[in-house]
Specification:
heterodimer, A: alpha+beta, five-stranded mixed beta sheet, four-stranded antiparallel beta sheet, 11 strands, 29% strand, B: Ribosomal Protein S5, domain 2, 30% helix, ExoRNase_PH_dom2_sf (chain A), exosome (chain A), RNase_PH (chain A), nucleus (chain A), Exoribonuclease phosphorolytic domain-containing protein (chain A)
């Protein structure tokens, strides 16, 4: 296997430096900013608010996502991101707890240097935790890129994304290992955290290469979920009271 | 309707319909435990698919695709434009997906549907990713003129699996597309040569001699599946999609390469076995769709 030299000197499995801060916006019920290298996304959560939208099921809570790009008008790309984020967050939230309510998640792109969707999902998750919305488990997002010779690299920058033949955004539930080091539940012989919540791919790849991306994604999600758990734990529980 | 011990009288029929409306998930699970669905399809089978090429006579390429009740009309209009400076010998494709109110009771006039821009973007990404169309073929005069293909897909009936039907109609429309003949007129502009009567009076030679078709490599075909507990249902109807919300769309091209594995969230997680099962179902479906498309294309050529 040919070693790929990445422009910033990272190994293929190495993620960019991660930074997560919570509670940065004071009016929002929950907020977080997440950055991976130069890509930075700010997420704010307002809710639960009373009432659901017209076509939504009133017996469950509803999540509404608004995606704000850094520049330019809102177009189809933003609508797609909103839909993907909404369905991903709906699958991690416990929707039966607050029926007939709407929780709004607003995502603002601060800077895009590759792996934007993964950054946004991670930020939205952290903001939901900050707001105290009941969720089943966290969602950990990772981006895997495929080079021409089948080599997989993680967490690409924008330049790397453009040169690759394909990439896959994967979202997994977070690993239970940080809480229960003795092991996790097995479903069909695979640990629960290997199930894909969301997968979006671009570019042509073979099925085996996609499965290889999945494996790398599993390994990286364990590291990411450790980071998430550590950074979300640092805040004191006393600042969870917010004016609604 | 598939439930055991249904007697023929009206009261039993009313009960089944009421049960279907009041407890849709239990209604479906009773069927799934017998490995069948309410419309008597086995779990892995897609609905009947038909394709009609040349549905819109005034368009340069068009197709009408029906998967079960889901109906999509795709039409391509070609226009000459000047190519961008960073790709002077490439044409351009603009894909748009419309959901007019005729297609579904949840679509109201004036209020844009959430699904439409998402399917539109998915289609553009898939068609560009798959490399089906070589944009250099759309070039006329390098740096000065190139074709812009406007592909519009109208959903006439939305009954589940919208992306599959839309992609099929787009691929069929491109297979049917014939690039019009153009010539250079006195002002140095490209004009389209009309079919009738121009015969011996052409001042300039046409830039392209005859109507030609695009060479399409590796056509992409897709299959949407629903994951529900341990079951994988291929090609869902709108009712199934609204009850069991986890959808997976797999797009494979004719050489079995993965163009897209699209799973936008959903309560059920997809493990590696589910991924492989979905890909296997899609491989079968690609063979069926390729056959249907080839039959439709050869049917047009005989005429």
């Amino acid at each position: 296997m040919m070693e790929i030299d990445r422009a910033d000197g990272r190994t293929p499995n190495q993620l960019r430096p991660l930074a997560c801060s919570r509670n940065i916006l004071h009016r929002a019920h929950g907020s977080a900013s997440w950055s991976q290298g130069d890509t930075k996304v700010l997420a704010a959560v307002y809710g639960p608010k009373a009432g659901t939208k017209k076509n939504e099921n009133p017996e469950k809570a509803c999540i509404e996502v608004i995606w704000k790009p850094k520049t330019g008008q809102i177009g189809k790309l933003e609508k797609e991101y909103e839909m993907i984020l909404k369905r991903t967050l709906q699958s991690i939230c416990i929707l039966t707890i607050n029926p007939n309510t709407t929780t709004s998640v607003i995502v603002q792109v601060v800077h895009d240097d590759g792996a934007l969707l993964t950054c946004a999902i991670n930020a939205a998750c952290a903001a939901l935790v900050d707001a105290g919305i009941p969720i089943k488990h966290l969602a950990v997002a990772i981006c895997c890129c495929l080079a021409e010779d089948g080599y997989v690299i993680l967490d690409p920058t924008k330049l790397e994304e453009q040169k690759m033949k394909g990439f896959a955004f994967l979202v997994f539930p977070n690993s239970i290992h940080s809480v229960l080091p003795e092991g996790s539940l097995l479903v069909e012989g695979e640990p629960v955290e290997h199930g894909i919540i969301t997968s979006v791919t671009h570019g042509l790849m073979s099925v085996e290469e996609y499965l290889k991306c999945l494996e790398r994604g599993h390994a990286a999600s364990a590291k990411l979920s450790d980071f998430l758990r550590r950074s979300l734990k640092l805040q004191l529980p006393s600042d969870s009271s917010k004016a609604k | 309707m598939g439930l055991p011990n249904v007697s023929g009288d009206l009261s039993a029929e009313m009960e089944v319909d009421a049960f279907r409306r009041l407890f849709p998930l239990r209604f479906y699970e009773r069927h799934l435990s017998e490995s069948i669905r309410p419309d008597a399809r086995p779990l892995g089978r897609a609905r009947d698919t038909t394709l009609a090429l040349g549905a819109v006579a005034s368009a340069d390429g068009s197709a009408l695709a029906k998967i079960g009740s889901t109906t999509m009309l795709a039409a391509i209009k070609m226009e000459v434009m000047s190519p961008s400076t960073d790709s002077p010998d490439e044409g351009c494709i603009a894909i748009d997906f419309h959901m007019p109110p005729i297609c579904s009771p949840i679509v109201r006039p004036g209020r844009p549907v959430e699904a439409a821009p998402v399917v539109s973007k998915q289609l553009s990404d898939t068609i560009l990713s798959s490399g089906m169309i070589n944009l250099k073929e759309l070039s006329l005069v390098s740096g000065k003129a190139a074709w812009m293909a406007y592909l519009d897909i109208y959903c006439l009936d939305a009954d589940g699996a919208l992306f599959d039907a839309a992609l099929l109609s787009a691929v069929a429309a491109f297979s049917h597309l014939q690039i019009p003949i153009v010539s250079l007129n006195d002002d140095g502009k490209i004009v389209v040569v009309s079919e009738e009567g121009e015969g011996g009076k052409l001042d300039k030679e046409p830039v392209n001699k005859e109507k030609r078709k695009l060479t399409l490599r590796s056509l992409p075909f897709s299959l949407t599946c629903i994951l529900h507990k341990n079951y994988i249902l291929a090609d869902p109807t709108a009712e199934e999609e609204s009850i069991m919300e986890t959808l997976v769309t797999v797009v494979l091209d004719s050489s079995s390469r993965l163009v897209s594995f699209y799973k936008p969230g959903g309560p059920v997680l997809a493990y590696t076995s589910a991924v492989q099962d979905c890909v296997a179902l899609t491989r079968q479906r690609v063979k069926e769709l390729k056959k249907i498309l080839d039959e439709a294309v050869s049917g047009m050529e005989i005429d």
